[in-house]
TrEMBL record:
Protein encoded by which gene: Swap70
One Gene Ontology cellular component: plasma membrane
CDD domains linked: PH_SWAP-70
InterPro entries in the record: EF-hand_SWAP70_N, PH-like_dom_sf, PH_domain, PH_SWAP70
Localization (cell): Cell membrane; Cell projection, Lamellipodium; Cytoplasm; Nucleus
Regions annotated as coiled coil: 309-530
Organism of provenance: Irena cyanogastra (Philippine fairy-bluebird)
Official protein name in the record: Switch-associated protein 70
PROSITE patterns the UniProt entry points to: PH_DOMAIN
UniProt keyword list: Cell membrane, Cell projection, Coiled coil, Cytoplasm, DNA-binding, Membrane, Nucleus, Phosphoprotein
Amino acid sequence: MVGLKEELLKSIWHAFTALDLDRSGKVLSHNLCTVLNVPHDPVALEEHFRDDDEGPVSNQGYMPYLNKFILEKVQGNFDKVEFNRMCWTLCAKKNLSKSPLLISDEDAFKVWVIFNFLSEDKYPLIIVPEEIEYLLKKITEAMGAGWQQEQFDHYKIALNTSREGLSAWELIDLIGSGQFSKGMDRQTVSMAINEVFNELILDVLKQGYMLKKGHKRKNWMERWFVLKPNIISYYVSEDLKDKKGDIVLDGNCCVEALPDKDGKKCLFLIKCLDKTFEISASDKKKKQEWIQAIQSTVNLLRAGSPPPHKEARQKRKELRQKLLAEQEELERQMKELQVANENKQKELETVRKQLEAAAARAAEEEKKRLQTQVELQDRFSLELEREKMVRQKMEEQVAQKSSELEQYLQRVRELEEMYKQLQEALEDEKQARQDEETVRKLQARLLEEETAKRAELEKWHLQQQQTIQMTEAEKQELENQRMMKEQALQVAMEQLKQLELERKEALEQYEEVKKKLETAANNTKSWKDKVAHHEGLIRLIEPGSKNPHLITNWGPAAFTEAELEQRQRSWKGKKATSE
């Protein structure tokens, strides 16, 4: 009921503002009660305005009466078109333009009603450019013409520079001028306005001729069907004068396509709780369009949603409100920024003044600083002369110290050179000792091999002695074995000679190494004397012991004297035994 009340108030506002002030309340109230099917109470009207000097023309006086005694009693059982026509009759003569229009008065009335539907919910009523564009698009689409977006954009820019929107009478002048319907005749424009009026105001979702099968006679009759959000009405013709019945729609209804039968094509079925209706469309396209339209209507009833055009209008309004709120928020933020900017400007001005005062103080301080600087320069000049004399003396001392330092560095370089040479001599001595150790190991290995050969020879000699004492029968065999062993002994003697030669060569190498070692030792001793001469900065590494080595035919220092004597006695004993 709130939405219905808002729609009624818009039409009533036009009528109220158009009537004469002295009798507007009484005349309008009587007409409203008549068309809205509300009981009229003249006594209540007089009582309501008894103490009001301005009478029903006062905003505080008439609107409370209108809400309490008329609008609150409206039940919805009235003809909307008749109600709007009554309000139109009261306001059209005073406000409608006298210039000739390309649309009839009836079309102007329909545009006025559409304006009330699309206008904003604030007074005085206006229609914003977005809704103007929506309406003009709908009319252009109904005419089958192409929409000129660029032309409307220019018009919208010109409109926005002067005001927020158009009044109802300005909208009628815009559509009646033919500015957006050039090339179309009056009849085409009228049919387009009527189609938009039926959809937006009368809630006609679809209409057209179809065949309907009767429930009693079962005959097929052509009827003009009009689909609305909760009902399908069918008439004898499209003038809507002779109504034949209604198909009440709810969420339980359904629509189904039927196969062709009884010579009828493009059939579909509408099922309701109490009745079923068989309908035949003119072609398959119309059949599909009607099925989709009826099914969409039933789905909206199940969801409890308003008709599509009302829902779209609400969404557009919510979007505009949202954009308006965002714009207001942006303006608020801009104002806050402007205030903040002004505060910043004030702060900057204060800072500028402070800087000017600081600059004046700085100039005064600079003047004092320059005076002080002159005094300091005179003082520093005297101190500079004294510092020059002190620096000259220090430079002389530094030159002397530099000479001494150069001498000291030269001495250090000489010592470093001597140290390098000493390191090389030590490396030579170390290499000689390694060579000596290598030769000694070689002699020891040759001596062990010679000892092993001599032991083997002695063993063979003992075996020969035992063989002589054997029997004659075995003597011949032993003789053969002795010959073989003598041959082997001969080979061993030759190997022993070869080892002896190798030992002599090793001994010669040892002598050479020994000479090198003595030479290195002499060099080391010479460098040691030089280092001792230079304040003993480096202590040399002395060579090994100079005790005489024991030289035998087995190699130098291979055996001690006791071992040599024991081996000599053992050799002589074995030799005597073999003889």
